[in-house]
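Exercise (ungraded).
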Amino acid sequence: MSSTRVSVAVNRPAGDEMTATAISTDVRAGRRSAVDILESHLERINAHEGAVHAFNVLTLDTARANAEAIDAMVAAGTDPGRLAGVPLALKDNMCTQGIPTTCSSKILEGWKPPYNATVVDRLAAAGTVMVGKTNLDEFAMGSSTENSAFGPTKNPHDLDCVPGGSSGGSAASVAAGFAAVAIGSDTGGSIRQPAALCGLVGIKPTYGTVSRYGLIAFASSLDQIGPFCHTVEDAALMMEVIAGHDDRDSTSLSQSLAGLVDAARLGLAEGVTGLRVGIPRELNGEGISDDVKQRVEEAAKRLEAAGAIIGTASVPAAVYGLSAYYIIAPAEASSNLARYDGVRYGLRVTEGTTNVAEMMIASRTAGFGPEVKRRIMLGTYALSAGYYDAYYGQAQKVRTLIIRDFARAYEQFDVLLSPTSPTTAFKFGDKTADPMTMYFNDVCTIPSNLSGEPAISVPCGVGHDGMPVGVQLLGPALSEATLFRAAAAIEGGN
Amino acid sequence: MAIAKGWELVVGLEVHCELATKTKIFCSCPNQFGDEPNTNICPVCLGLPGSLPVLNYMAVELAMRVGQALNCRVEPSIFHRKNYFYPDMPKDYQVSQNDLPINIDGFLDLPDGFRVGIERAHLEEDTGKTQHMGTSGRIHGADYSLVDYNRAGVPLLEIVTRPDIRTAEQAKAYVAELRSILVATGGSDGKMEEGSMRVDANVSVRKSVDDPYGTRCEIKNLNSLRSLVRAIEYEANRQVDMLTNGERIVQETRHWNEEDGRTSSMRSKEEAMDYRYFPEPDLVPIAPSSEWVTAVRESLGLMPADRRARLSEATGGNLGTGSDTIVAIVEQGLDEYVLAAVAGGGDARRAINRVANEIVTPEVAAKIDVAMFAKLLVLEGDAKLTATQAKQVLAEMIEQGGGDPETIVVTRGFEAMDSGVVETIVDALISAHPAEFERLKGGDAKVTGFFVGAAMKASGGKADGKLVTSLLRSRAGLASER
């Protein structure tokens, strides 16, 4: 452990009074006030946000007004909702009416959405108090927040380390005690990897369970919204609030998720007797640090102690996941990001231009950072005439094979266990020289985005550097209840 | 202008028509022409960050209605994104259908029986509308441009024919017939002048039907049937001239300029955009159930071809389904009017002629109660009015916006002229014009017109022209006509 390590992280185990579960229970019962809860979080923001840089924008005035309104509701005998008074941080790629929404990009400069994302409305209706919008890798492209146009976010456990990404600001805001919970988005691991690096629970739910309406798209067929929390039960509670069909998202599932909180409690109280857990060799081999491998073994032991049966699984096509992902995600991104052209909103650069095409080029050249440009070019190339079959077509076939291989694994196992990230949090600049090194961070998380299946990262001790390690549990579509139960069993050993 | 001799013209048409839904294809904004710019817009049709499309199933239903009327098969289909940058396209991609369109493999029979194959009829969203401000009116040389996004997201059906059309007139007949089908299905109002029906023509020429198709050019900006015919003929002759001079045709997109009456190059195949189509991940596949398709097919009313057949039948087949008057009446939607007049006792052929020549438009028909129109036809049929008188009465009915023909007959003093009086007039005319009568006897039919005209003049228009003719012929010792 480095002697100069500076940590501003908080520890909120199950039962802690600052978990979302404890806060909302107390606020609804009138034992604590939403205003007091908010103020104690604002104190931490005042003390450490300057060092951490978790937020792009703080919304303290509306936060105070909302907290007061919640307290007034409680006083009037009205239930403010299942997340009453819970301070929330929102990744700055989800639309908030009248509040700047930047994706940490210069291209959206000055734009204020005229509408709220569905997830924002649902969380507000449940009584959360949004304190601000969090930093991310520009357009969610990255694994460290170093690609933010507004500067990186620091890992609260070690300010010299990255918090992971792309939802690094959301993870850091919870780890630093700026908010009790946060919302992120996960396209290739952007919730699970920063959750692992910041010592939090993070889940990428089944594709279609949480509405994407109002989530600014990176790669539409892979993007899912999910929570960052200190505990598995908090994550289950958040999921019960944000999941559910939305008419405004055509890819939203009609099935709903229920019983998640109960499942999390059962996992803690009664374990996972008879649960068949497979460790896929393809996700636990080359490139995974020994530290992390040891923590996966530890997680397996904890599950075994809780009654699970552990075996070795195989998902052969998963090794091609990273390659397929870096075709499909950039291809969709190249199209999704075309609309930032300076015509209707955001940055417009006209200097030195004589027509609309030149204006579009100048605006996009000035507005996008290098990683976003790299992916737009990759994706444009992959979709071009003559290359489509060799790249995009082939990647879609890999995707189908991954789905098939997971389905085969789930004939033998209820859940799979793997590392979340190959290493603990790394230092700033360590992986920026070579994009491929950075991309490798997502090797274990990408397969679930390609298959559309859920995966949760849960803390399981620390590495030799003292930094948090997360392990990942994967399951078939809509198996969230099982994942929460198993995750709680691992959490119980912390 | 016609196509040079010795060459065959080959035309395929792509028609974009705006579907007559109440709301847009992916959001609930009104689908309405002519409103204040940028009032029928929302985050979805403006493509604002984070917004997502939700398919309007009425657009699917209307697409299927048109497809069924064009004898297409409904297939399970998906949407693709067609990527290119243009300021009037909010997302800088258009949601369209590519290799899996909703309707495939149909045909449209022209009134004369010529069959045009339909390759596909697919769904897509319309773009906004750019207005280039400045002297040129086009993007080059414009001072600035304004964009109206009211049209962005209006549902379009793009109907693509096979290269089956061989003359400009056929192309015109195809578009006219398609418009009637669109209106009959309720799929679209088919108004070319409002841009709810837009036509692109792929034109090529070849020496012989045995030759492979020539290199084609796609002509855009055809805003009327007249432009369509002119542009195809101009383009075909341009290509013939080039080939005759030993030049080669370059595959390209060309712009029709209505004022010059010429096409000019917009972009060549080499400059053609790579649209980078890929499946639209924000939408799910459309797979209409066979029950839905059947229900759509069974709910289709009579198509223009059925209606022409019905009119032809009413004449006992005297007028064919492809006759100009029948085609015109059905195109104007006046066939029900004709049939109602026939049901009221009018002669079908007379009704068709009066409607096609005198009434002409639905606006005029709306002013004249069909029972009164039928009454007029009966008066004429019973020889109580001459054809000339009947036309005069009808003209008055049109002018005053209705009225009872019997009343008009009385006020005008039209009554059937006694045949004895007509005989007297005819005999007097024969005596007065012996030379002309000799020519008539000699078989010069043209003189008949002279006598009929003179008889009309003498009778103040009351004599029955037919009676005059038959009297003349019998006096001249000729067999009576027919």
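Further reading is listed at the end of the chapter. For now, observe: Chain A is about 40% helix and 10% strand. The interface with chain B takes residues 94-95, 101, 103, 108, 111, 113-115, 117, 212-217, 219-221, 247-251, 331-332, 334-335, 338-341, 343-345, 356-357, 360, 380, 383-385, 388, 392 of chain A (CB under 8 Å).
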